Amino acid sequence: MSGAHDTKPVYPDEQESITIFEDMYEQYRQRISKYFSVKLNPLVADDLTQQVFLKAVENIHSFKGSSNLFTWIFKIAQNTVKNEYRRLSRQKESPYDFTDYESQSISLEFTKHVDIRIDIGSALKKLDEIDQEIIALRFFVDCTLPEISKIVGRRESAVKNRLYRALEKLRKELKEWGDIAIMSIQDLISIVNKGVSHDTNDRTKKVHQDLFDELNSSVERVSTKYKHHPSQKVVIEIYPDLPTFHQAVGETDAPNWFMGTYEGRILKIVSPLNPGPEHTYQSILKSTVHLFAMWLISDINPTAPKWIRQGIGGYEANQMSRDFIKGSTEDSIRNQTIPSFDELNNDTWDFETMKGFQFSYMMVEFVVERYGIEALNKLIRNPQDFEGIFQCSETELHEQWVNYIKI
Known about the structure:
The structure is a single chain. With 407 residues, this protein is of the alpha/beta class. It has 3 domains: 3-96, Orthogonal Bundle (Rna Polymerase Sigma Factor, Chain: A), CATH 1.10.1740; 100-120 and 196-300, Glutaredoxin; 301-407, no CATH class. It is built from 20 helices and 5 strands. It has a 5-stranded mixed beta sheet. A hairpin with a 4-residue loop joins strand 1 (105-109) and strand 2. Keywords: DNA-binding, Sigma factor, Transcription, Transcription regulation.
C-alpha cells in the first residue's frame, strides 16, 4: 500500500489552521531566531527556530485561537531554551556570552533611512534573569508589552515597571557610553526618567540632538543629489571608545585616526563623546555623514572604486578645510608624486599616508566643477566609461586633474 493511503486526511478547518500558520511563519520566524541568538547562540538560532516551528506544526491542533499565535509559538521557544540549558548543563557547557554577541544592541529609528544602535551586551549580564528576558523581548524580539506580559506570565503593569527599573540599572552600567546612550534607550520607550536633574537632561538632549541634526540635514540631501533611494535602512552602531571600536571591527592594531567604517548596511563609529586623540566631537559627527555617503555610493554600485567612495564621502561631509588639504598635499604635488586612480584604490593604512583622503576629495571636486554633478553620477554607475562620460581616456582625465590641482 502506498504511503499516500497511510496519510491522515486533512479536514477543512485543520487545513485553514495550517494555512494561517504558514502565513505566520514568515512573520514570526525572524523574531524567534533573534530570541535564540540572545539566549543561546547565534550559530544555532536558525536550527532551533526550525525545531520550534516543526513542533508548532505537529501541535497546531492544540492551538484554540483564544490566545495570540505568536505568544503560543513563543512558549514553545521558551521550552526549547530550557531544554537547551539542561543539555548544556549536563555537558558542562555555557550558553553564549552576551558580551561576545555583537548584535546585543538597541536600535533607535529617527529618519526613514537611518537609525542608531547602541551596544548594551555586557550591561545586560548585570540584570536579573527576568529583567534580561523582558529587555530581550522588548528590544531584540520586538515584542509589545501585552505580548511580553503573556510570555513571562506577569501583568502588563508589572512588566512595564520592571522594564523601567531594568533601564535604570542599565543607565548605571552604561556610564562609559555617555549621555547619548542613555538618551537613546529612553527614547525607545514611552517612559521618562524624572529622576534626572534638569541640567543633565538638557546636556543629554543636546548631545543626542547634535548627531540627529547632522544626519537629518544630510541624508535626504545626499540621497537626492546622487539620485538614489537607499535599498535598505542604515543602522548606526556607536562604540564607547577607540579600543572597543577597533576590536569590534577586527582591527585591534588600527591607527587612532580610524574611527568609523561600514559593513553592509551598518555604519560603525566611536562615540563623539570619547573620540580619541586624533578626532574631536565635531569631527565624529561629520564622519558619520562621510560614512553614510560612502555607503550610499556602494549601494548604488558595489564595485565603485575606493577613491570615488572616499572622495564623495569627504566632499559631502565637508570635513577638511582648504588650508588643510593644500598644506597636506603640497609636497606630493611639488614632487610630482600625485597618486594614480589605481593607487587611490589602496585598501591598506597606507591610504592615509599617501594622502588618499585629500586626493580623492580633490578628484571629486574636480569632476563636479569641470564636468558637473551629472558626470559624477554617471561615473559612480560606470566608473570605467571615461570616454563616454568625459570624452577622454583615463590617463587624459588624470592629467587634467593634476593640472587642476597644481593651480
